[in-house]
Amino acid sequence: MASNRSVLDEAPYRTRGGGSGTATAYGPGFDAGGGMSSGDGRFAPDDFYADEGAAEGPGAGFDTETWEEWNPTEESIAPVRGRHRVAKQRGGTMARSGAVLGVGVIAAVGAGGMASAKDRPALPISMPDLGHVADQVKASLPAAKDLPGIGSWASDDSGGSQTAAAPLSQAGLTNEDEQRGTTDAGEALRARILQQAENQQNAADEDSRTAAAQAAAKAAADKAADQAAEAAAKRKAKAEAAAAAKRAAEQRAKEAAEKKAAAERQARLAAAYTLPVGSYTLTASFGQAGDIWSADHTGQDFAAPTGTPVKAVHGGTITQAGWAGSYGYRIVLTLDDGTELWFCHLSSMVVTSGKVSTGDVIARVGATGNVTGPHLHLEVRPGGGSPIDPMPWLRQHGMTP
Questions:
Q1: Exposure winner among 123, 303, 322, 395, fewest CB in 10 A?
Q2: How high is the pLDDT of residue 67?
Q3: Which residues span the membrane (predicted)?
Q4: pLDDT per residue over 186-234, tens digit each?
């Protein structure tokens, strides 16, 4: 392109009613002829037409000029390099004036169209003549009295016998309805609805009866369970009472058996043990003080005449026999558990060694040693140790001096 002309300047001219080879020039400022003012860009209505008698038409009032056909080439459509310049339109306010002009033209055209539409007469509407068609349709329709369901209502013969109206429709009728003589679909539907409602009511009543029966059965089962539990509790209490009575009886029997066993044991002990003399008088006891003893008395004295037999209290072995100083003649009987029995102040000794049994005569009562009269001095020394009170020991072994 040879120069940087404005796009508006390069736009092709638009043919507008001027004939071949003519065009209306829409150049900058619309300054062709007297159609537009070229200086201020304002529209001049008085200059729109060249003279009052000239023919009106597009392009009137604008200069026409001969134009040549423009064929774009590669160079002409090549983009312009560098800074783009747009030619400033003359007047400077053409764009704004053109917008105002366009709005005014649109408003004027719209108002003119509305005014012309208001003044125009109504358009005639033609309809085909259907009179003969209506007559033909009417002639083909049945009489009102012959219509099913409403014939009796429309019949003019009010005094004659009225026949039963036929149902409007038999749609929905089942074989069962037909067998029952029902010919009206509405009545059949009503009957089915009523039957369904009755069935639902019967089902609800049956459910209520079933629920009541179940509740009664549950109440009876609960009552039976309570009674069974109460009976079980009574049986349990009775069983516990019987068990307690049995335990008490067993305890009493056990105590009786223990007493019996103790008595039997005492009897056996009594048979196994015996008092040292058969006839006696208890005189000095264990622990008693006196002037004739260097210390408290260490045994139990059985006073008896001289020569009274002295028996072995229990079976054992005679380990010592002879003179023992202040004890006089003494025999020591050692039992199987190691307890030593001292028989003192004897007048004579019958057995001086060896084993003896319960009740064997081993000596005789005397008054030897430190005494004031004939008697048997008995000492009990467990394990051969210090002496203890002979009386509890004798009673422990079933003897009561």
A1: 123
A2: 60
A3: none
A4: 777 777 888 889 999 999 999 999 999 999 999 999 999 999 999 999 9
**Rounded Cα distance, 35 and 37, in Å:** 7
Phi, psi of 360 (to 5 degrees): -70, 135
- Which residues pair with residue 156 across a beta bridge? none
Q: 393: alpha, beta or left, given left = phi > 0 and alpha = psi -120 to 50?
A: alpha
Q: Which amino acid is at 97?
A: S
CATH 2.60.120.600 assigned to 281-396: no
Per-domain boundaries in the chain: 7-114, 183-272, 281-396
Q: Is the pTM of this model over 0.85?
A: no
Query: pLDDT by residue (tens digit) across 260-289?
Result: 998 887 677 667 899 999 899 998 888 787
Rg of the Cα trace of the chain? 80
Helical H segments across 11-69, by residue range: none
What tokens were used for 363? Answer: 């000596």
